Amino acid sequence: MGYNVTQKLIQDHLVKGEMTPGEEIGLKIDQTLTQDATGTMVMLELEAMGLDYRKTEASAQYVDHNLIQEDSKNPDDHLFLESAAQRFGLHFSRPGNGVSHPVHMQRLAKPGQTLLGSDSHTCANGCMGMLAMGAGGIDVAMAIAGEPFYVKMPEVWGVYVKGELPDWVSAKDVILEMLRRHDVKGGVGKVIEYYGPGLKELSAMDRHVIANMGAELGATGTVFPSDEVVKNYLKRQEREEDWKELIADNDAEYDLHETINLSELEPLIAKPSSPGNVVPVREVAGEPIYQSYIGSSANPGYRDFAIAAEIVKGKSIAQGVSFDLNPTSRQMLQDLVKDNHIASLLSSGGRLHQAGCNGCIGMGQAPATGRNSLRTTPRNFPGRSGTKEDSVFLCSPETAAASALYGKIVDPLDLGEYPKVEEPAQPTVDTSLLEYPLPEDEAKSVELVKGPNIASIPEMDELPDQLELPILLKMGDNISTDEILAGGARVLPYRSNLPEISKFTFEIVDDTYYDRAMDTKEKGGHAIVGGYNYGQGSSREHAALAPRYLGLRVAIVQDFARIHWQNLVNFGVLPLTFSESEEAEKLEQGDVIQFNGLRDALQNGQDLTATIKGKDQTVKLRHTLSYRQVDMMLKGGLINWTKEKA
């Protein structure tokens, strides 16, 4: 039996474990990606480890999230990140250079390599024939230091692609179709691998759009082959020497099978407030809109802006609509300017913003309360836009641009002739805002520049043998990391200051949590209870670290999203699931649960029992920690475990 592309990538990088789905494996990491919302903590972790110089082939630190400089906190941290990149031998992408994922694709992505990023949408670079995965910052720090990345061996979900996209349908509709079929947890424990004759109809950047939102399916990663399409892309980026062919063997098999016929797709849209709430655009046509937003890592390509420009060319957007344009890389923006597409967008009434993540992460462009916002972004979780009572729809650039003209949601199929756009024959290659690593001997003399907003990570204690914990929250399904700890302009400037950022923890769910948690902090801590797919969304480790700082010791849910589960383990929060779903009915907010002999129980099996104080009831629970992770948990998390190992 031959191998599929995912299996080839894993086999080439496997350093521990066996390729049996569900078993823990260790992978050698070739490249890493960090951005400024998560990278500050990574750089502090590298400093704490005493790292001399990166051990990866290439690592890059991007500044793309925290671009608003309303005071000194963000620019101070940018200087810190630049000095840390110089000190540890990383590429440094300066503010204004663009969003990490498309810039990495342009300048550093290599077929056949592994990429680990402290951003959940790192999976976007699977479009280049890479195994690209998101992870918590400390996992990325360990990879930069040369340690393997540990993950459960995924199943490989083969998606056979045939046909070609009809007019007015684009790559965003392909991934929305996957979300329509499988919702936000359909990809958990899986790598999605696309193959088949239809791939020749999808450009490298179309594939990026699809791979990017594999994160919204909960997938470990998304993989495309490295074929002639990828070769042509690298050639146009003046990097043809980095190409290598990587395709599935003719007799390759997959653990799961799916078919998508591109020819049968229609324009789709995800309604508020979940990327999995997908319906045909025609079903919501006529809904009034306040905002139409083009850009983000989920639609970062030249054609995504050029097609919008052609749709609005010579016309004016509807009165009262904010038409927000968020370029995703500096070099792509220059091509749009040269080809007059920016002129068309501005002449129609568009608002041009700097190249970066911007409104996708709640950094500006928040919609008005109670008004509908159409966005080509990857997520519409509650409050992520920066507006607490937001109403965000996810759609293609075609749908967003057409709707901007009419002030209401429009099915682009009703517009008539589809404008055609061509990629530039020779796109701009601009590295003026990308700083290359210093040589190792020169890097060692660099001093880290620390502003007043940077605070060290506090020490974590070991896991006690007995715990008595009040349940401070009981939540439902699909709680996202944005709801655990919001992003946006209010919160992310404190990313390097744990005591301050923790004040925003769970405020969207329950704004009394912080004060109640602080009351438990010195009394042994507390627990929370949740439903299915707990912790979906961003890889921000702050969503685990801030609750831990506030005293969270145990999270009990029906099941976890992969990255957040791993982040909880890394910081010594015990992640448990109910052995049977009905067990959740026994627990209520305000109950107190007791664990006795906890350390031995973790080491001796996967089943645990907790007692509900004063109710004469027990709750049967399970953990899925590996032996390595149990040892890590007992020591209070990855930092303590690493120190002892060293």
Automatic annotation (TrEMBL):
Residues 512-580 form the Aconitase A/isopropylmalate dehydratase small subunit swivel domain. Residues 369-389 are annotated as: Disordered. It holds the Pfam family Aconitase. The keyword Iron applies. Keywords: Iron, Iron-sulfur, Lyase, Metal-binding. Its EC number is 4.2.1.3. Residues 370-379 have a biased composition (Polar residues). It catalyses: citrate = D-threo-isocitrate. It comes from the Bacteria. Residues 8-407 form the Aconitase/3-isopropylmalate dehydratase large subunit alpha/beta/alpha domain. The keyword Iron-sulfur applies. It is an enzyme of class 4 (lyase). One of its GO terms (molecular function) is aconitate hydratase activity. Coiled coil: none annotated. Gene3D superfamilies: Aconitase, domain 3 (3.30.499.10), Aconitase, domain 4 (3.20.19.10). Monomer. This is aconitate hydratase. It comes from Pontibacillus chungwhensis.
